[in-house]
Every structure is written in C-alpha cells, then in structure tokens.
Design a protein that fits this description.
The protein has 6 helices and no strands. The chain is mainly α and 211 residues long. It has one domain.
Length: 211
C-alpha cells in the first residue's frame, strides 16, 4: 500500500513538474526581453520544475537500487544505510531549491491578490500560503536530522566503517543522476514549449481581433 501511494505521489509530482516546465517554456524567450521581476518569476518556475523532476527520478532510482545491490550480494544493513543517505541528500537538495523559490511565488501571489482582489487570485494565494507553511514546518522538523546524518556520513564518527565511503559515493551518484535527469527533462519541455508558443505573436493577434 505504501509503494502504491508513493507511486501515485511521484506520478502527480511528475505531472505538476511537466505543467510547470511547459508554462515556463511558453514565456521563456519573452522573459529575456522583458527582464526584471517577470524574468525572475520564469526562472523560479524553471528551478522548481527541475527540482520536481529530480525528486521523481531520485525516488525511482531508490526503488530500483536495492534490487541491484542485492544482486551484487550487498548486505541488508549496508543497503538500508545507502537508502537513508541517498534519500537525505535528495530531501536536502529539494529543500534548498523549493523553499526559497516557494517563498518568492507565495509573495508574488500575495501581491497579485492585493492588486486584483479576485476569487481566483484569492484561491491561489490561499493554497500557496498553506503549501508554504506546510513545507516550512516540515523542513524545520526533518531537515536538522537529515543534515546530521549527512554530516556523519561525510565527516565520519564513532560508527564510521570502511564501507561507508562506498555508500556515500553511491548516494551521491544517485543524487547526480537524478539532478541531471531533472535538468534535461525540464529543459527539453521548456525548449519545446518555447518553440511552439510565441507570446508576442499571440498578443499581436489579439490586438488585430480587438481592432
């Protein structure tokens, strides 16, 4: 049941990240021309899409890797240590990318609601407020222990073993592969959407219809 829920969450996150990257791509080239806060907003969305895909790929690799390690006759304790460290690294990466960008999006949604005062902007602001509070509280609870485990793996300690170096390298490899997967997936979607949608041309068409 836990695996099913995890798969559903990953599928949902993949879909959200895809939609986010596609939205960014629609305005990516134009944001270079406009610049300013609009460019920042688009780049924030880009970063969030990369982080979202990274999380998906990272946990897929974590689901697959125990089977591969078992085939390599790695003992169960080592596999568990590897999974814990790799998941901690993925978690911290997502935290340092999603929390700051989330605050930016939340503040922007507050500004938008204050200026427009519409139902839709109010709903978006309400959801962003809930999501940001939830994520921030979660980070405050779980990030310190994750950082402590990562520091112990990097710096060693009383429980340091010879096999820990290999575990650390494998965990870092999982993170690197996930980040590269997230980056290339988000970039491919952004470039495709950028080619297919021309905001300036769309605005010119709307002006032509209006007149």
């Amino acid at each position: 049941m836990t695996i099913v829920m995890l798969v559903l969450v990953l599928v949902l996150n993949f879909g959200i990240s895809w939609a986010n990257a596609a939205y960014v791509g629609r305005y990516y080239s134009e944001s270079k021309i406009v610049g300013g806060s609009f460019r920042v907003y688009i780049m924030v969305g880009y970063i969030m899409a990369i982080a979202g895909f990274t999380m998906v790929y990272g946990y897929i690799l974590l689901l697959i890797s125990p089977t591969l390690l078992q085939m390599a006759e790695v003992d169960q304790d080592t596999i568990m240590m590897f999974e814990q460290l790799a998941s901690d690294l993925l978690y911290i990466f997502c935290v340092i990318t999603m929390i700051p960008t989330g605050f930016y999006i939340w503040i922007r949604s507050l500004k938008n609601f204050w200026e427009n005062k519409t139902l839709s902007s109010g709903v978006v602001t309400g959801w962003n407020t809930y999501a940001q509070i939830h994520n921030t509280v979660s980070v405050a609870r779980h990030a310190p222990s994750a950082l402590e485990r990562i520091a112990e793996a990097l710096l060693g300690g009383k429980r340091k073993k010879k096999g820990n170096a290999l575990i650390l390298l494998l965990a870092i490899l999982i993170l690197i592969l996930a980040i590269f997967g997230g980056y290339f997936t988000a970039s491919a979607i952004v470039k495709k959407a950028d080619r297919e949608y021309d905001l300036l041309e769309e605005l010119r068409k709307r002006e032509a219809v209006t007149f």
